[in-house]
Amino acid sequence: MNKLVKLFIILFLLISQTALAANPKVKIETSEGVIEVELLSEKSPITVRNFLSYVDSGFYDGTIFHRVIPNFMVQGGGFNKKFEKKQTNKAIKNEADNNLVNIKGTIAMARTSEPHSATAQFFINTNNNYFLNHRSKNYKEWGYTVFGKVTKGYDIVEKIESVKTGRRKHMKDVPSKTIEIIKITQITQK
Questions:
Q1: Which residue, 29, 60, 156, 190, is most buried by CB atoms nearer than 10 A?
Q2: Separation of alpha carbons 70 and 129, rounded Å
Q3: Contact yes or no for 153/34 (Cβ under 8 A)
Q4: How far apart are CA 144 and CA 141, in angstroms?
């Protein structure tokens, strides 16, 4: 192997490792414990930037997990402890066509039936929810953007998933006890 090819391979490996290490990580401190998530910025750059803008502004501090459906997902980041909806920034482009799949332990953006309506709310899949994946750019088949994965604290996700739920105001599947997102912070890369 000539020196130029060896140099190219070394350079490629260094760049690949740097890109991998560049994935931001966040710590979600909840009233049930801590969840750590790696954000997949290469595959979901718009979504990760959007999520981190909410994280860095303190938007999620004091919000709740307001929707919990066993064997499906836990959803939060949009309501405060008084169950008041928080004011959000403009909706972002749906990146569900990024080839990431809604499998157990991944984090994705919540949205309305409008494909490009995600703002701040997110959910953690507690099952392999393939039906949420992008199938086409058709209105009904856009899917939900996966933008990260739980790396620590999945037992806390399971604890949240196991709470009793009921109706509150106009919503069902609301935890009967408040599950607070105390704060979400970026974890400094070492």
A1: 60
A2: 12
A3: yes
A4: 9
pTM: 0.88
Looking at the DSSP bridge assignments, the partners of residue 36 are 27, 152
Rounded to whole angstroms, what are the CA distances from 72 to 13, 69, 81?
37, 5, 23
pLDDT value for 18: 43
Q: What is the sign, positive or negative, of the torsion defined by CA atoms of 46, 52, 55, 58?
A: negative
The full length of the chain comes to 190
CB 71 within 8 A of CB 165: no
Helix, strand, or coil (residue 32) = coil
Q: What is the pLDDT of residues 135-154, one digit of tens each?
A: 999 888 999 999 999 999 99
Q: State how far the Cα of 180 lies from the Cα of 35, in Å rounded to an integer.
A: 13
Paired tokens of 138: 């058709």
